[in-house]
Amino acid sequence: MKKTKKNCWAFGFTANFTFATASVMMDIKKYCPDFVDEIVIFHNGINDKDKKLLNRILPTKFYEYNFPIKISKLSDSAQNYFTSMVFSKFEALKLLQEYERVIFSDYDILIQGDLSEMFKDCPSGWRVVWAKNKVRDMLYREIDDYDMDKESFHGAFHIVWDHLPDHQKMWEWCYFALEEYAEALWLPETGVFNLLWQEFNIDVERSLHPLVYDCHPSQTDHTKDAKIIHAYAQPKFWNGWDFPQWEQNYRKWAGWGGTPYYERTMKYKLQQKFFDARNKIQRSIGPMKKLIKNLVFGSSSR
């Protein structure tokens, strides 16, 4: 069957980060409109208004993501840091039934330039940003029958093509491996992908340089020339790092009436003022109680 859509850019996130994805979509529209036919979003309940606004930026399809495994099987740290939405990255493989090429990225990125190198033909069918980290660095323990010394990758995004063999089986295997090795996974979806490549003997193309396509905001000597800045870990663009381009995108989204970042809302600011005032009162009450106690019991003892 001939595919009517060639390329999609996919995201997976909880609804409270819709504003962040909107910013990336604005960048996509600006820097690589010829390489993306539509956006695909896996989510847990985006409201209808935000859906309409996202479609205003680029044509967008929405799928509610149903995680098929009990997340309690994962290590405590993985549960505390990641939501189940991170595993929607596996869905990139299933999307190859509909698209010729799929890029699946995080939403805490800022695009600053032409990305045509990312989309050029890839014989292996899978392209990532290279990394010096080893497979064992993605895990809590070594897993038998897999080479722990293989190079891993930077996880801001990965790109897959439909000539990748057995991509439907790979999609199924990702969830099998996640359940099978849950307690061993530190960076869970990255760890699964590393095992997958060995399981299916995929010669993944690691041709994209991390300082160009996965530059952290703290790497200030390189941020100006980077094509993608990735604010992994904390803080993010919306609660710490100051990047005018991201702020401009956010103001546009907020101006349209899109759901804002909660900590920038008046409700949150008023709550913080209330909590600060309450804490100040509580701090002052303690010494006052002590003073009254000393006065009362001190005078009665005389």
Automatic annotation (TrEMBL):
Keyword annotations from UniProtKB, A to Z: Signal, Transferase
Protein name (Swiss-Prot/TrEMBL): Putative glycosyltransferase family 8 protein
Gene3D superfamilies per record: Spore Coat Polysaccharide Biosynthesis Protein SpsA, Chain A
Entries under SUPFAM superfamilies matching the protein: Nucleotide-diphospho-sugar transferases (SSF53448)
Species classification: Bacteria, Bacillati, Cyanobacteriota, Cyanophyceae, Gloeomargaritales
Top-level division of the source organism's lineage: Bacteria
Position of the signal peptide: 1-22
UniProt KW Transferase keyword: yes
